[in-house]
Specification:
The protein is mostly helical. The chain contains three helices and two strands; from the N terminus they run H-E-E-H-H. The protein has helices spanning about 1-10, 35-55, 85-95, and strands at about 20, 25-30. The protein has a two-stranded antiparallel ribbon. Strand 1 and strand 2 form a beta hairpin. Helix 1 packs across helix 2. The longest helix has 18 residues, at about 35-55. The chain is globular, with a radius of gyration of 15 Å.
Length: about 100
């Protein structure tokens, strides 16, 4: 997990961001003042940096060698006022 956090932080070092561990192995990242295109670019950069790191998994699944990740990106515009708990529910419900 520490490697992943470091990769995320290094991928976002040129912007102000807030990163936290949400739920076991899920991370949340807030990118203030970032539109949909910038958010997508950062998501792709993080994903590519994780892939390039070749983090070895200790897995019994012989078909998986390295960590991979899926990134869901959401854009909330400032005019929308969404309490934090509702924001997390919105994210969790979108995966269903």
């Amino acid at each position: 997990m520490i490697k992943i956090v470091n990769i995320i932080e290094n991928s976002l070092e040129e912007v102000i961001s807030i990163t936290w561990l949400c739920d076991g192995d899920e991370f949340g990242i807030i990118l203030p003042n970032s539109d949909e295109n910038k958010t997508k670019q950062f998501a792709e950069k993080i994903s590519q940096n994780i892939d390039n790191a070749k983090i070895v998994l200790d897995s019994h699944n012989q078909n998986i060698d390295y960590l991979s990740l899926r990134i869901d990106a959401y854009t909330v515009y400032p005019k929308e006022k969404i309490p934090y708990t509702n924001f997390l529910k919105m994210i969790r419900n979108s995966r269903s």
